Amino acid sequence: MRVEVITTAAALERLRPDWIGLWQRAVTAGPFQHPDWLLSWWRRLGGGELFVLAVRHGAELAALAPFYITTDAASGERQLTLLGNGVSDCCDVLLDPRRSGAKAALAEALKASRACWTGYDLRDLPPDSVLLSIFDDQPDASISRDTPTVVVDLRGGVEGSLLSPRMAADLRRCRRRAEEIGVLSMDFASSEELIARAMDALFALHHARWRARDESGVLHGPEREAFYREIAARFARHGWLRLLTLSLGGRVVGASFDFQVRGRAYHYIGGFAPELATLGLGSLMLQQLILRAVHDGAHEFDFLRGEEDYKRRWGGVPRPHYRIRPKQVAEAARMMMEAAHAGVA
């Protein structure tokens, strides 16, 4: 096997067809490892230097580690990180399960490249990430728990399985209260025009909700908006997009940006009119999204990062994710956190 180091956006874009083929063979990979997500992320939100390791078996791509390097202006430290960091709820490398030597080749390439980077921070790694075993052999590496995702098992269906009598009653109450304001409707955007309108509504509602808290929110900024619009268009072409809007009396007051890939539904981000926060519109949209996921054959509904209480009420169970960084960095962060907690106490 041979390893290529890709350092330009043009070279990475040329890799797209082979990358898609590898993603298709890596059957456990999700949307956050797909080239449509990561190439768009690099073009719209990335920064630093590309440092992508591509392992080939003959002409075929056997593994891909989509790294980039950022340089700290003060210290000069060059930190290795995975593409998609920050907006991706799961980051990882891709490995062809048929190529038993791909992992060893990737591990050797990482070892040989240590002169190119001095630090690393690899976040949101799934439990089966090959990076966990590669870095477990490194004496300076710390592997710790990161923010988990929360997942609902849909194999038993929804009604009577996920919905307790109390939750079913709460949802009926939410619907009645909403319908007192106006006619309630929920629709999944399908055409280009409807997707564009739904994305407009999503951004407006998300911004309004966070402005009410004097914060900007994760969708703030033209580059982020452009990124998510591009993802919506690309995922719609794959049949993955689940972009839901909720209207009351003809006015869109809720929107949710979700997708379904390989039998998994992903609840990525949403927004609703802040003045209607007490109506439980988010719960009504979640019910509709989960029902759609079951209808489309999903076996799980992934709430993604965070252990908020509402996710558990839907039967969500935490799924661990991991973070890899140097031991001295992890220890310094632990001490700072302990000091902060002591100060609060």
Question: TL;DR of this structure?
Answer:
With 345 residues, the chain is α+β, with helices and mostly antiparallel strands.
Mean pLDDT: 93
Would you identify the CATH H-level superfamily of the largest domain? Gcn5-related N-acetyltransferase (GNAT)
What is the correct CATH architecture of the largest domain?
3-Layer(aba) Sandwich
Rg from Cα = 22 Å
Name the poorly predicted regions: none
What name does the CATH topology of the largest domain carry?
Aminopeptidase
Helical segment count: 11
Instruction: Please provide the count of β strands.
Output: 14
Distance, first to last CA: 55 Å
What percent strand? 25-35%
Integer count of domains: 2
Shape: globular
Q: What proportion of the residues is helical, as a percent range? A: 25-40%
In the CATH hierarchy, what is the class of the largest domain? Answer: Alpha Beta
The string of secondary-structure elements, in order, is: EHHHEEEEHEEHEHEHHEEEHEHEH
Largest sheet composition: 8 strands, mixed
Q: What's the arrangement of strands in the largest beta sheet?
A: 7-14-8-13-12-11-10-9
Which structural traits does this protein have?
345 residues; alpha+beta; Aminopeptidase; 2 domains; 8-stranded mixed sheet; 6-stranded mixed sheet; 11 helices; 14 strands; 29% strand
